[in-house]
Amino acid sequence: ASTYDVDSVQDKWRKVWEDLDPFRAGSAAPGAEKKYALTMFPYPSGDLHMGHAEVMALHDVVARYWWQRGYDVLNPIGWDSFGLPAENAAIKRDENPAVFTYANIETQAESFKRYAISFDWSRRLNTSDVEYYRWTQWLFLKFRERGLAYRKFSPVNWCPQDQTVLANEQVVQGMCERCGAEVTKRELSQWYFKVTDYAQRLLDDMVPLEDSWPSKVLAMQRNWIGRSEGAHVDFDLELTSGESRTVKVFTTRPDTLYGATFMVVAADAKMAAEIVAPERAEELAAYVAEIRKATDIDRLATDRPKSGVDLGVTATNPVTGESMPVWASDYVLADYGTGAIMAVPAHDQRDLDFARAFDLPVRRVVDTGEENPEESGIATTGAGTYVQSGPLDGKSDTTEGIASIIEVLEERGTGTGTVNFRLRDWLLSRQRYWGAPIPIIHCETCGEVAVPEDQLPVVLPDLSGADLKPQGVSPLAAAEEWVNVACPSCGGAAKRDSDTMDTFVDSSWYYFRYCSPDYTEGPFDPQAVRDWMPVAQYVGGVEHAILHLLYSRFFTKVLHDMGMIDFEEPFTALLNQGEVINEGRGMSKSLGNGVNLGEMIDEYGVDAIRLTLVFAGPPEADIDWADMSPGGSLKFLQRAWRLAGDVACPVGTSPEGGDTALRQATHRTVAEVTELVEGQRFNVLVARTMELVNTTRKAIDAGPGPEDPAVREAVETVAILLSLVAPYVAEEMWERLGHEPTVARAGWPTVDPSLLVQDTVTAVVQVKGKVKARLEVSPEISEADLEQLALADGDVVRAIGDAVVRKVIVRAPKLVNIVV
Ligand code: ANZ
Ligand code: ZN
Known about the structure:
Elements: H1 6-20, E1 34-39, H2 50-68, E2 72-74, E3 78-79, H3 84-93, H4 97-114, E4 125-126, H5 130-145, E5 149-159, E6 164-166, E7 171-172, E8 175-176, E9 184-193, H6 199-204, H7 215-225, E10 227-238, E11 244-251, E12 262-266, H8 270-275, H9 281-291, H10 296-300, E13 308-316, E14 323-329, E15 340-343, H11 349-358, E16 366-367, H12 373-376, E17 385-386, H13 398-412, E18 415-421, E19 426-427, E20 429-430, E21 440-443, E22 447-450, H14 480-483, E23 484-486, E24 493-496, E25 500-501, H15 503-506, H16 510-513, H17 526-532, E26 537-540, H18 547-561, E27 574-576, E28 580-582, E29 585-586, H19 597-604, H20 606-615, E30 623-624, H21 630-646, H22 660-678, H23 682-701, H24 709-722, H25 727-736, E31 761-767, E32 770-777, H26 783-792, H27 794-800, E33 807-811, E34 815-819
Parallel strand pairs: 1-2, 1-26, 3-4, 12-14, 26-27, 28-30, 31-34
Antiparallel strand pairs: 5-6, 5-9, 7-8, 9-19, 10-11, 10-13, 10-18, 12-15, 13-14, 16-17, 20-25, 21-22, 21-24, 23-24, 28-29, 31-32, 33-34
Helix pairs in contact: 2-20, 3-4, 19-20, 20-21, 21-23, 21-24, 21-25, 22-23, 22-24, 23-24, 24-25
The protein binds ligand ANZ and zinc ion.
């Protein structure tokens, strides 16, 4: 046939591949090196969209390349199938989330198969499967045994729309990461993972990832962990009751202690209510009620008008002995540092704004040469000479200043040097139905009791027909039969914890499970994990830079400390793909600029869509679909496919003796493409393949002709290169060339180094035995041409000067010797 029928080709090969099962992990030659290629698993909230199409197409270039290179590849797929998106969608449709979720999973699986991603389909997993979440529960209990999962009562982020708490990481600019509603605070008893215990290691272990993770992601994690060096300083307070009390502050600038003129405590910290003078208590309570509405982002904003309440008590500056007022304000956060600060208005802008708003004293202690902040209203934060600072006066080294004040404080026992982290513990409990139940039982006599290991899993009850609408408590609390149990410890009446786990708990360890998805003795088979992990290449969106990637790193470190694995970082290399946009903007329903993947595939075929996405630009760059030409991609693929029909020498013919120029083009392409794939420059891989197709077409039509064995070699190479991007066309070409399927496992072409001749060589020109010029010339240059070039060179002409040329000895292409 001379036309390429996309649909029938797709149907044909899907069946063949299903029988061949070519991408089963462990199916490479014995002893082959193992490579784990991972792509972030999808939420089953609908069918696949353009974003999935892009990330999977890029990811699959790597996985398929590894197979071609002879590695044993683990490229698994599964679904992040618990969680709010599915639950909210199910509520809207008045369906059981399970029905909706599993139907979507089937739809997506079908789409992935049609999209021909080289997954090992035998390893499918869903985080909402009982066999999976029993181990999520098991891990929770193991973490708890290590003191890394605990419950505490404290103010938490609350999404009024989803009626559930949120982790700090799920609050994006004050909004719920999922639904966009403004997040408020509530006091609740909730479960946490103690990720703060790992803050320093999470920072340190990023160093070796410097070259293989996007620097943006590393910077975001560093910033999120937020390590600050500084000091804790103790201030003695005199309360109105006559009692005294010590309040600790965290400061990164203890060297400015002489400039501290008042103290501020977080208005919503417990401490504020404890120290406030009785006559100010009411005012404080009213103020706290007001600020509960503000987000942390608002509260820390420098341009926000300062507000606060004078608590009517005084504190003593430990170095000046001066008495200073204590205020409560919302610009100090309750859960950062110690929830209290020493205000140094001269050198901290927020403190200065506050001082000016409430007429509090400003004292400059670092002279930076700028105008005095007291007059300018602009705090100076840089280095300068210390003034009004006792022993520091006249000095000007900040590091030294900080160290010497810490020394003084430590000697007197009124402070210590310390490191503070911005990272908070991970709030993991959710008041929603569709998640892994927390395997804890609450007993009035025994307190919190872990569900015994042999009673796992705690199966999520079927609440079909029940109202799952968020009401602030988990719908599980109303499932009487499920909730009421005997205490495993005393046998008395007790209740199950009715919260479920954040889905980020599920996704923090799924890549371990893929190594042995049917293992029943633990979350994973240690040997299988030793074989495959860590992940060699992880591909996914930058939106997971903090949440998922930080949590996964934390889980991996805990598993390491539990002795279950011997590495500490899960993902050796990370690639963040760009976004697929349309007409310059993100695709969205409200803009009406969505592009339907299914329709695109129906119109142009899978290969053309995949090729378009890979060819669009560097993988990390955004793709504007409006600028793309899937029709052009399809035309190119048909051109490539036609080559296979034109090859006229039999399969198995040795390429030796074939046309040299074409053979060189082929081998140079393979050599270059190998480096391009290793360097993740997949778009250039496509460009080089296109060039090889054009060169081969010329060779068939005008050059050595279709019988030349170099043509077969070139077309076979095109098929193999295309197998990374356009698997259907590649397979069809391979068959037309007389091979058995599958081209995906044909093996990477071997490069013959003798065919990689350089385009130019350097010819040396000597005059009177001295080198006077170096010329870049073609290796095939004739002696006459080389002589002419040499004699025309400016330096050579100068070197000869007035002398008479007696003899020119030419050894093309390397040497010209001029005798005068
Ligand atoms: C005195 C001081 C003087 C400060 C100065 C800064 C400059 P990072 O680097 O982010 O850790 N701070 C401490 N706890 C706070 C809280 N709970 N809410 C709001 N602000 C708080 O910032 C640490 C600095 O932020 C601390 O150092 C403290 O102000 C303030 F010239 O103390 B500093
Ligand atoms: Zn009990």
